[in-house]
Amino acid sequence: NNDTMHVIDPTGDLLDPRQVSGALLNSMNDLFVIGVHRGLAVAPVINAKDESVKEGLLKNAASFASSVGARLLDVEMPREGRLLMGGTVIGYTARSPPQFKDNVEVGMKLIATRPFGELAPITTYLVSALDESVVDELEAEGLSFEALERAKEEAVRLISTPNKAAAEVIERHLPELGEPFDPTEHIPLTTDVTGQGAYSVRELADLAKVEITLYDFPLLFPEVSEFAAKHFIMPNATSGTNGGFLILAPDGVADDIIKELRSRGYSPSVIGEVTGKGRPAVKATPRLANYIFDEALLSALGLRDGGL
What we know:
Helix content: 25-40%
Shape: globular
CATH superfamily of the largest domain: PurM-like C-terminal domain
Number of domains: 2
CATH class of the largest domain: Alpha Beta
CATH architecture of the largest domain: Alpha-Beta Complex
Distance between the termini: 37 Å
CATH topology of the largest domain: Phosphoribosyl-aminoimidazole Synthetase, Chain A, domain 2
Strand content: 15-25%
Number of strands: 10
Radius of gyration: 20 Å
């Protein structure tokens, strides 16, 4: 999987190791979410106008790759001076990936590996740094700029933290290659929650042609997300990057998955379930409308048709 970007935290030091690790994890997350975590190799794409900065970024990339047990490949990279960080990540698995959209059944549970919404404090912090009136509005609603900065730092930490342990849990609940799918034991579908935020739930419903009732959509910083939506800073303040995962799982193994994730340091929860088949739909909790002002997204989540 390939992903390349300019920067994770525009307000931070380019040579903060979290910048490169977050960029590389954008590629890794798409493998981790389908249970791929073995034999990882990284073909980096690193560039900068300043050669010393480029060397520092490459050093950070090598350090990060080593920390997740990945090989850093020696490959040709861009030579122009545009800032780039990211790469292509390769891995392997002996299990069938969770792409069993036709095997999703009524009663299956929707699990969140952890709360979402990493981009809300980063975006709000950036806007606040550019416009002092936003700081005044924050403080008027009981949110200090210092608290926002701490939330931003926590978001950057999470973005630069691998979801490798979640990949290990997902892998345990997938069929071996060639083994038939068991709807009582195996995970049929997963997705990572990135820029689309809560719309990820609708994407699962559309893919499997099922109705999902969404009881909760846990957010890391609900007050910041609500502020960002209320003040038109973000149309969808549930969005993130390198976010947690959504896992559709049979009712009989959902508790086991929750326990396994918790033992690996996650904060998982069951946030919904499949309540119908044949017609894709989401019935979301009305609370979710506090964090979104995009009317199309609200409609897609059933929040303009009554919701829950």
